[in-house]
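Issue: copy button drops trailing tokens. Both records pasted manually instead:
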Amino acid sequence: MIVFVKGQIRQIHSGGLQVLIRKVNVLALELFKTPLYLLAVPVVLCVRLIKPWMLVRFGSLLSSRIGHFAANTELYLCEYDAGINVPKQRHFDLFFMAYKPVCNDQLACMWGRELRIYPRFVLGPIYRINRLIPGGRSHEIVNTQHDRDVNNLLTRFPPHISFTDEEMKKGEESLRKIGIPEEEPFVCLMVRDAEYLKEKFPNVDFTYHDYRDSNINNYVLAAEELAERGYYVIRMGAKVSSPLISSNPKVIDYAFNGMRNDFMDIYLGANCKFAITVGTGMDAIPMIFRRPMVYVNYVPLGYFLTWGEGTLVLAKHHIKDHRECTLSEIFNSGVGFCLSTSDYNSKGIKLLENSPEEIRNVALEFVDRLEGKWHQQPDDEKLQRLFWKIFPTNAVDLHLGMPLHGKIRARYSANFLRENPGWLE
């Protein structure tokens, strides 16, 4: 595009034009909101004055990323049920979407049936002014767990959101369109790549997260084996970089075939038999609907979700000086808690994805456990105990100052431990 700037003709590429338009829109919005901020001041003062009789609290929902939008919100409600972080006096909680557009309209609709959610342009200025005036902390809703169930609440309480009868009917009809017959079990496959963040946040450099990415075609063997066991396998994702290549009719690339939509993202995650995931935002949907989970290629290992009953995990291989690091070496070096690609590089660690055979083996191990067909070998419990003796179950998030783990209910892949006993030395 050609533009005229101070007597000069310049060419602006489409990306630069989008940035310019976005900045102009942000400036215009801030100018528009100035009166709202002025009006927010007396509102906040009134809220402070009535505090002895009624505590009004404000909360922002992390609506830009589906993992936090789902898990943080559900865990707030679980905490409320458990009496954790709940004021002793009469109180009234109000919420707004922290970001627009929201990452998933269906999930926003479902939260709207459970929470008091008001427009951001109304509550946003009040929330910010309350933060500016000293003494506003008690009027702010804080989820003490963020997206980690360190108090093991998900097993204590049922899901807080559900589908209406009309939505259930819509979901069943959509399953038929996708190619899943009535009453047939299906599995959600969630494999992270960089495409979603590139498109959703084009001006943010998320390459520091690249260490979490995985090659979708390493999952074909597992998907086809699960299909042989009677499961349909649905590859999930709002935006993905590559198709899942399989000729098996029970392996459905829903993320790539044009049938993906916000409603079915939630419906599929909520109703799958179980989910296979690398640890990405979308897996918060099966998590909040209490679906079983198996994690593969999971990093950083110290952060894996240990509270799910029956959860299985398999981490990426950590290679240094051309050999695989043992579990003790991973944690003694601090690499078990690295959160950036550059951190792994600085420690000389190369992350190697699980092989297709390893992914298949842990998936089938999970299915056998789920179906009651798992045959435990004599040394399995010994290996599990050794794993959890080395694993730092008392670890604390250094940024948030909160525990990373509660009661341990997950297990590491028995197949992997059997085949790699030296990893636990």
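Record 2 (pasted manually too):
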Amino acid sequence: MSIISVKGLKKYYNGLKAVDGINFEVKKGEIFGFLGPNGAGKTTTIKMLVTLLKPTGGMALINNYDINKNPYDVRKSIGVVFQEPALDDELTGKENLDFHARMYGMTGKNREKRIKEVLKRVNLESKKDILVKFYSGGMKRRLEIARGLMHHPRILFLDEPTLGLDPQTRRSIWSYIKELNEKEGITVFLTTHYMEEADYLCSRIAIIDHGKILVTDEPEKLKNKLGKDIITINCSKHKLCAKIFEKKKWVDSVKVHGSSVNLGLMNSEKKLPEIIKIVEKNKIKMNSLSTRKPTLEDVFLYYTGRKIRDEESNGIESFKRRFMGRR
């Protein structure tokens, strides 16, 4: 059963396509992830789904409520944690939660009970009376998640939930998200550009780039589509090498990146001698050859033609291409 249904959703800015007619469904009780680089359209999509942005076109149902016709009912059904912190540093953790609960019309006894529940859920009971300005980055993130849960939402939206956190704190936040999903039975919709995060948390992933969804599936199924193994050949004539292996029926996928060719296939250990023989026969100088299991980075490379790290490191140029036009 779908708790989020999106059809042909669009958001244009002066003709520029931030979100370009996307379609997807989120099942009740799952952790669903949007994986893509900065500027891909992830945050714009979330802002439309939580009724902060009006779509240019298309429609979306959140908990069976139309985001255009029933925005108030949508907001009652969701909790949201945005990229940018939205806590009051001059209030304590408990006071932040109390203020949020009052905004949702929660009454005294119910409010106090729920504050205790969510503080326990994110392990901040002992820090509830400390001013938020003295919280660590991880504590603030956990408090924001707790605040998003105050009014018993059906869906929790997390926009880059671990952005800027150190690896240890990031892992801790992942555990809290998993626990919330399992024990609260809440549907989680998160955006991320961290491959490991998407792989660890999400039951299904949609890869989004330049405002379009390229593929949606379970992480393992996405990786298996490339083949059980990835062989990387770094060679002098990588384009020729790719063309040769594209014709081999036992190769599941071929992708060129820089001076390397990635081959996805089954039983790589049995095919290695034949691969080396083919390369040598075609007089292609091979600098190195390696084999490994496919990752979501390989999936992203296959569907977009580049690695997400490349896109992140060239963020300014990507922004110029998308929003300032090509010159």
